[in-house]
Design a protein that fits this description.
Blueprint: E1 5-8, H1 14-33, E2 40-44, E3 47-53, H2 56-59, H3 68-78, E4 86-93, E5 108-112, E6 144-156, E7 170-172, E8 185-187, E9 193-198, E10 205-207, E11 215-224, H4 226-233
Antiparallel strand pairs: 1-9, 2-3, 3-4, 4-11, 5-6, 6-9, 6-11, 7-8, 7-10
Length: about 240
């Protein structure tokens, strides 16, 4: 409850976890020290986190989280067809980031299908060619194709020393209009742990303000076809 989700701790052995944490810290340092860095950095008016979008180049530093074999296993676990269309990001919330809004992540998104690729090769959204959330083409030869977000993974790392009551949890809700602290489950941002949940019109969740230390995570989204989403959830309105 309140919707289908999985939790895991000690996901990687200490050496592999440290490799991921070091890569995360290195990228954050590069972004903070060089405003003209090459990463896809996003900031939002209603969301305080620094968001560094994932692409094929950056994903090489975060294996196996962004490898086909990992995506296939997650898809099998959730009981959804494997589709090599993924998106993701590094998220870093500074201390005292605002509590987020309660949302489901269930929404249509678009990938540029003009890119030639092998059948199992992972494809990331290319924001320079079409808008991920609207499908609007940015170049003449783009071929936007619509998909639906179907599952999300949050992997927690670089939250050294986190203690209970410091905030920074991911919170799961039964409804979209719950009070932020009247929740079904609080998922702590413990290093080397993850939350994996099915995205639906009812997968309501949010981030709770972090009062003591920064809160860091790696986000991964799996996608499905429109037809599969309708077979699963009917013609429910897309909830952003």
């Amino acid at each position: 409850m309140p919707f289908r989700h999985f939790r895991a701790s000690q996901v990687f052995n200490p050496i592999d976890y440290q490799s991921l944490a070091s890569a995360f810290s290195r990228v954050l340092q590069e972004v903070n020290s060089d405003p003209k860095q090459q990463y896809n950095v996003e900031r939002y008016n209603n969301y305080d986190a620094l968001v560094i979008g994932m692409d094929a180049r950056l994903s090489n530093q975060f294996k196996p989280l962004f490898e086909s074999s990992w995506i296939e296993e997650l898809s099998r676990l959730m009981g959804i067809p494997f589709l090599p269309r993924i998106s993701g990001a590094l998220h870093s919330h500074p201390v005292n980031s605002r509590t987020g809004w309660i949302h489901s992540d269930y929404c249509p998104v678009w990938f540029d299908e003009s890119v030639k690729q092998f059948e199992s090769e992972l494809l990331y959204p290319d924001h320079s060619r079409c808008e991920y959330f609207t499908g609007k083409s940015k170049v003449a030869d783009a071929l936007p194709k619509e998909y639906i977000r179907s599952a999300s993974m949050i992997f927690y790392l670089c939250n050294d020393g986190w203690q209970e009551d410091e905030g920074g949890e991911t919170v799961l809700y039964e409804a979209a209009h719950s009070h932020p602290y009247r929740a079904v489950e609080f998922i702590p941002p413990v290093n080397n742990s993850l939350l994996f949940f099915e995205i639906s019109p009812y997968s309501f969740h949010t981030f709770i303000t972090n009062r003591v230390r920064s809160r860091n995570s790696i986000i991964l989204f799996l996608h499905s076809t429109i037809e599969f989403a309708k077979s699963r959830w009917g013609n429910s309105l897309h909830q952003p």
